[in-house]
Amino acid sequence: MSAWFSDLTLLGCFLCMVLPIASFGLIMIFTRNNHKLSLAISLLCSTIPLMIAWSLLYRYWDIAEPIVYNYDWILSDFIKIPFGFLLDPTSLLMLTIVATISWLVQIYSIGYMEGDPGFGNYYAFLSLFALSMLGVSISSGLLQLYICWELVGVSSYLLIGFWYEKFSASEAGKKAFVVTRFGDVGFFMGLAILTIFYGNLEIANINSAAVAQSMPPWLISTGALLIFCGVMGKSAQFPLHVWLPDAMEGPTPVSALLHSATMVAAGVFLIARIYPFFSASPEAMAVALALGTITLLLSSTIGMVATDIKQVWAYSTVSQLGFMIMGLAAGSYFAGYFHLTTHAGFKALLFLCSGVFIHHFGTNDFFVMAAKGGRKLIIPMVTITIAALALSGIFPFSGFFSKEAILGALYHHPNKIWFLMGLFGAFLTAYYTFRVIFVMLFPKNSAPEEKHGHDEPHEEHHGVPWVMSIPLLILATFTIILGFCQGYLERFLLGHTLHHEHNYLLLVSAVIAALSGIGLAWLDWGSKKAKCVGFISYVPALENFFKEKWYMDHFWRWFLNAFIYGTFSRLFTYNDRRVVDGGVDTVAFSTIGSGRLLSFLQTALLQLNLLFMVVVVAGVGLYLLMGR
Amino acid sequence: MINNVETYLYIALFLFAIGLYGVLARRSLIAVLISVELMLNAAMINFMAFNRFLAPHPAVGQIYALFIMAVAAAEAAIGLSIIVAIYRKMKSINVEHATELRG
Asked: What is the rounded distance in angstroms from the CA atom of residue B100 to the CA atom of residue A431?
């Protein structure tokens, strides 16, 4: 026991796991109805992990060997399933990202969720989420990671359906849970394959070269592809991306925390976590690259036609996740992970800014926000523009550096088609991002006098409360400086700096893609003579296709009806009715018949009978023990 | 913290006693079911403790523990469905109201 206190690192990891779960339990059991106290508990239990995370990052900045605390949970013949903590650059960085964003979101939510009757519950769920996400980052074994991964799914379900009186919200929660579950089944089967054929679920061990020696390549590929199914579910990759846009039904801070910065990044993190294992299978990498590319293009095109501001950012999240997976799958561990880091900053910022607008104007439609004078809110407007510049990949904001790193990785891939796709994706990203920004900045048909004429329900909000604007400013600072930390992060994550040959073709093409996207958005939505219709509307068939979200929802509905309900469900029902029920009925009728014969023995004093039984058995036992 | 077999046996005994009391004294079927689970867990702790301190082979007690978990899960599923059926019939889950079979 003393080791827990003498080793500060271990104590820190332990506290990171214990405090959030303690906060969840305390709030749910005792203080749910006391909003102030719940808030204090939850904030305390997220501030300490935040400090722990940063101090660990600082202390182990020059870490050479990963630090592992392992406790064997199951040891059998050759199966070894450990629980514990693994601290290496990958997990330390994720730990810091998660702790920071979740702390900022908790601060921001003080303003956003003020007066909500479920305030206490909300903070309890946020604590549960913090626990599971911190657990995902520092788990030392894949089974432990899987458990936390499922907990992430649960807390996401709870938070999406937080306003459960709203039918669409509870439906969206259910959809998110079921779809991610669908992928997690694959993940679990992958773990089973690893356990059966390799036997050791310790992450450090899986990443070593021993796996490739003891498993045939086709098994590694199968395992990696199955685990990738889990990634597809959680990180919303095609074709399992359908849950993420619906998940925007939750409160906006939740969208910022879970569905853009941390939870959906868990899938990408998982690939980074067992990257050597993944890269041992070229097939899995190829599939990941293809799916990432499809996801990138699909969601950017849908983002071009959405009118709900959160939908736009949701599709943009999906596309950026696809971009990260492209980077990882193209062979650059650093590029994908670096984009995860910067994306966590600027996408959380985008959502939190949108949250301010939604809170202020009571609508999700950014055309309405623009007409009501959205640009008068100075701080959110400036920060949302910074975040949008970062998302489009404009120098000197963080997105520029990470996107360039990924494009560089794609450029070095032998097949140049991925690079062109990536460029096209960057162009589309810049276009749909600045569509929102220009519409909000330069409203066309705003009627300022009308604004004062009506009795606005939100007129009492004067400006933005500081608890909401401080997180915006902090995140904006991150967005600006994070890009310049690329070299340091590279040395931290890889142990050495990459050799940068300055490829001007790459640089210029990336910048041109982003700038032309912004320029096109300016022509379509920004300039004085703009017609305020997207260029895509010249091809009505295509526009309709995008508006219907590539018919993916229809596809899944059809799939469910045809295969799940129509085939499996019907067969199982038939089996249940005829075989199982029929058999049980026969047994039951014969039991009833024989029961009637013996019913005179029943006194209906069940617990008295039990008591006699216990006393007699205890008496006999004592007699046998003592009597000899 | 005394790390020997008796500590675990006392914990198990305590759990078992709570469970036994619950089974005998509570009138709600749900509470009875929960108490049965407690008793199963007490048995499981015994297995693990004996395995840890007395058995030479490392896996036997663990396997029993896993086995009991499976049994407990099955028991919970069947028990709950019985309770639901009783509730549908009697509109109550009080043990004392289940007197239909009295001879």
From this structure: 73
Asked if A221 and A284 touch (Cβ cutoff 8 Å), the reply is yes
By CA distance, what is B66's nearest residue in A?
Answer: A74
Mean pLDDT of chain A: 84
**What ipTM does the predicted assembly reach?**
0.79
Q: How far is residue A462's CA from residue A464's CA, in Å, rounded to a whole number?
A: 7
Residue A87 — φ and ψ, nearest 5°?
-115, 110
Is residue A406's pLDDT more than 60?
Answer: yes
State how far the Cα of A452 lies from the Cα of A158, in Å rounded to an integer.
Answer: 39
Residue B99 distance to chain A (closest CA, Å): 5
> To the nearest whole angstrom, how far is the Cα of A408 from the nearest Cα of chain B?
50
Question: Which residue from A minimizes the CA distance to B1?
Answer: A1
The 8 Å CB, 24+ separation contacts for A177-183 are: A177/A153, A178/A243, A179/A233, A179/A240, A179/A242, A179/A243, A180/A153, A180/A156, A180/A233, A180/A234, A180/A240, A180/A243, A181/A153, A181/A233, A182/A233, A182/A240, A183/A229, A183/A230, A183/A231, A183/A232, A183/A233, A183/A234, A183/A240
Of A75, A600, A604, nearest to B98 by CB-CB distance is: A604
- State the pLDDT at residue A282: 86
In angstroms, the CA A358 to CA A310 distance is 9
Residue A451 corresponds to which tokens in the numbers above? 């604004």
Q: Which residue of chain B has the CA closest to A610?
A: B24
For residue A501, pLDDT over 70 is answered with no
Residue pointed to by tokens 């520092």: A138
Q: Give me the helix-helix angle, A8-26 and A119-138, nearest 10°.
A: 150
pLDDT lower than 70: segments of chain B: 1, 101, 103
Chain B residues within 8 A of A77 when measuring between CB atoms: 59
Compute the distance between CA of residue A422 and CA of residue A393 in angstroms, rounded to an integer.
12
- In chain B, what residues touch A604 (CB-CB under 8 Å)? 96, 98-99, 101-102
Closest to A330 in 3D by CA, of A228, A405, A233: A405
Cα A506 from Cα A427, distance rounded (Å): 14
Taking one residue from A and the other from B, the number of pairs with CB-CB distance under 8 angstroms is 37
Our measurement of the distance from residue A226's CA atom to the centroid of its chain's CA atoms, rounded to an integer in Å, reads 19
Of A1, A600, A605, the CB nearest to B103: A600
* Residues of chain B with a CB closer than 8 angstroms to some CB in chain A: 1, 20, 23-25, 58-59, 62, 95-96, 98-99, 101-103
Q: Per the CB < 8 Å rule, is B103 touching A601? A: yes
Q: How far apart are CA A295 and CA A247, in angstroms?
A: 17
Tell me how close the Cα of A543 comes to any Cα of chain B, in angstroms: 51
Q: Are A229 and A188 in contact (CB under 8 A)?
A: no
